[in-house]
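Changelog-adjacent note: as of this version, every example in the card shows the full chain rather than a window. The one below runs 244 residues end to end.
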Amino acid sequence: MVHFQSLNRSHVFLVGILLLIQFSFPIQGLLHFYTDAGARRCFYKELPQGTLLIGRYKLEIFDEDAHEFYSPLDKLNTGILIDVEEKFDTDHRVVHQKGSPRGQFTFSALESGEHRICFTPKSFYKRRWLDGGGNDVDALKDSRFKKSRIMVDFSIRDGEIFDTKHSIKVNTLTEQVNSINDKLTDIKREQEFIREKEESFRDQSERTCERVIRWSIVQIGALVITCVYQMIALSSFFVKEKVS
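Full-length structure tokens:
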């Protein structure tokens, strides 16, 4: 009897721990499903007003020859159409997004109610007949897929908390931008100071060059005058010597 009571208490304690873990950590809806190309698969979620829905997805297409799923080689033309519609408001579409084979989307619920989230695997490839499509082998192969497998992970967060984190990031980026602007202002100030010093040095160099040129001209003029005077003096001397 004592052994049974101790076992029962241990079982209750273990169940309590499991329940505590379950309610302490958020549960994310990780799932995968199979669908045909172009087929629309939808999920329904009841979202309170102001909540943020984050969906992560991955698309794999089926290779008929290898009999296995693989990630599309053409990331540009093979992907998923994502639609989010407000079921309570006559299927009003609030999100229509063309996604790559792997990515995520976010949606903020403006009103409380049931929302429909739909995925449509599709190839957006259009063969160009003018160039023969010879350079689009991967795109042509991926465009012919018939079956696909989509893995989806939904997580719901509080929009206010997300906005607060977003505001903190924006403020941090703003501070960094202001700091960069201050540094740029200091750099511009230093550049202007260096430019002023260069202009002053250039003016001084030009004045020095002008003085050197003027002094050279004066020296050349004096030398010419001296040469002319000596020639005249020598001519007069030779004339006097000849006369005498």
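Structural remarks: The chain has a mean pLDDT of 79.
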